[in-house]
Write a structure and sequence with these properties.
This protein is mainly alpha-helical and 398 residues long. The chain is built from 14 helices and two strands, in the order H-H-H-H-H-H-H-H-H-H-H-H-H-H-E-E.
Length: 398
């Protein structure tokens, strides 16, 4: 089964172990980040260049890191009390301020963005201190180092702001790795945490649906090429959903449940892997929007980069996460990522609609191949073992 090891495959047919449920407060908290993703997409639409992608990433990482930190806290601590819910709401307000500042984060709203992030990390740090002892973890690093640096960058402006904020981005992302030994004994509820990250993937996919519909919702005439573009873009979104939720989501839960050091899975697969998943979907969403607006025209190079590059990154990231979970190569998804890159040079020389159809078809073919491979395994006959005994053909991770 793609993205599943032998043991992971069995979890699909066995009763699920009791797991912590995602709370209504957490789902309400996520609504703020729907807006945050939308604003990051708006920033990326302004500038499709590599520099624009870099600036969008620099402001997206703090937003994402607030969401990750809050989700981790809700996983390891009880947030069902009134005070716990109020803490989630207060952090959500800080996230809302960050989202409001995104479109002008490199201008007049830089201080609002930086102070809001620092405030969110301070909110997460409340209750961590016992006596005079200050724990060293990603939250306290943000409280005493990253947050102040972000505010410092907001005060200087220009290139220096970008450099300082880029340093903060690298520091925040590397802190869990630098503190691995100190954090290695942390225990997480696998079902709850993997569901939380899956929900953020859904938020990003929801942005792709908005990107498909928003450009044409107010149009007086819906021409055939526009409707075909909407169809192809939506088919691509469905195919992206299938790649993640049909196989990979279960594999991630199994990997976290069975890992000797759960932190390694949360770092590589959840925190880092999902940054790539979500960022690539945001990039593709911007590319879809531009395609829907001008389906009969060739794509600009920047749009090709967002749409095709984002898709290749999305598929290739499954190769990274699968290796980190099971030390196995995801041959089908890496092959599909390579196929997207091979087709990329063609995209600027055909209409945007044709380029979009080619991309949707590539991801759809990947899903069909994986589905047929799994179906063949389920229908495979018994195999002979040494000594004349027979047994069911084992499921093979692919």
């Amino acid at each position: 089964m793609p993205e599943l090891s032998d043991a992971a495959a069995s979890t699909r047919s066995s009763p699920a172990s009791p797991s912590k449920k995602v709370s209504w407060a957490e789902l309400f908290f996520d609504l703020v980040f729907v807006f945050g993703v939308t604003e990051v997409s708006a920033l990326l639409r302004v500038d499709h260049s590599l520099a624009g992608i870099g600036r969008a990433l620099i402001v997206f990482v703090p937003i994402y890191w607030v969401w990750v930190g809050t989700s981790m806290q809700a996983n390891v601590n009880d947030r069902s009390s009134a005070s716990g819910r109020l803490s989630i709401f207060a952090t959500a307000l800080g996230g809302l301020f960050m989202a409001l500042a995104v479109v002008d984060a490199y201008g007049d709203r830089a201080v609002l963005f930086a102070l809001s992030y620092w405030g969110c990390r301070l909110m997460l740090g409340i209750g961590m201190f016992s006596g005079r002892r200050v724990p060293i973890n990603p939250v306290t690093i943000s409280m005493f180092v990253s947050g102040p640096l972000l505010v410092l960058g907001a005060g200087v402006g220009g290139t220096f702001r970008i450099v300082i904020w880029a340093v903060v981005t690298v520091l925040e992302l590397s802190t869990p790795t630098l503190l691995r030994r100190r954090l290695s004994r942390m225990h997480f509820d696998a079902g709850h945490l993997t569901e939380r990250f899956g929900l953020f993937v859904l938020i990003a996919l929801g942005e792709s649906v908005v990107a498909i519909g928003a450009p044409v919702a107010g149009a007086e005439d819906l021409h055939t090429d526009v409707l075909l573009g909407v169809t192809a873009a939506f088919a691509l979104s469905c195919a992206l959903w299938w790649v993640y939720f049909h196989f990979a989501a279960d594999a991630m839960r199994h990997a976290l449940e069975t890992a000797q050091v759960q932190l390694d899975v949360t770092r590589h697969v959840l925190s880092y892997g999902h940054l790539a998943f979500i960022g690539s979907i945001i990039a593709m969403s911007v590319g879809m929007r531009e395609t829907i607006l001008h389906p009969s025209d060739p794509m600009a190079p920047g749009v090709v980069g967002l749409l095709y590059g984002g898709c290749a990154l999305y598929l290739a990231t499954f190769g990274y996460t699968r290796w980190m979970m099971f030390r196995l190569v995801s041959s089908t998804r890496l092959t599909a990522a390579a196929a997207v890159l091979v087709v990329t040079p063609v995209a600027p020389h055909v209409s945007a609609l044709v380029a979009l159809v080619l991309l949707a078809a590539t991801v759809t073919v990947l899903n069909v191949v994986e589905y047929l491979r799994e179906r063949r395994r389920r229908l495979s006959p018994v195999v002979a073992e040494p000594g004349g005994r027979t047994s069911a053909s084992p499921k093979k991770a692919t």
